[in-house]
Amino acid sequence: MDIRRITPDYAVSPQIAPEDVPELVAAGFRTVVCNRPDSEIPMELSSEVMRITVEAAGLTFVDNPVTHPTMTPERIAAQAEAMEKGPVLAYCASGTRSSILWSLAQAGRMPTDEILSATARAGYDLSALRPRLDLARG
């Protein structure tokens, strides 16, 4: 598993599997957010399988599947709400969508440079988001 911390309370990862959940518990995560639609993955990694496994381990599971076209204000708000139940591990195919959601949820709350620096330290170059992040700052 490739956990990349963006903040002390928010990390992202490529797709996780049920056998990764004990490591998430040991790492101190309290919430797991799935940002990957079931249509992208095999049944054994579906959000329902992951929900059952994560909740059986005593963690909170949030299903917030997105694709780039469905990254709506409502999905961003759902991610922001899930982030309040931290520490959070959010996963998708590569961690990029989960990083983008975090970034958009921080827009207007944090300076754009700090948002982009945090994601870059985690290995995600989201500099193309700068205009959208700046717009949210007003």
Automatic annotation (TrEMBL):
Segments forming domain Beta-lactamase hydrolase-like protein phosphatase-like: 2-108
Entry's Gene Ontology molecular function annotations: hydrolase activity
Protein name: TIGR01244 family phosphatase
Gene source species: Rubellimicrobium roseum
CDD domains on file: PTP-bact
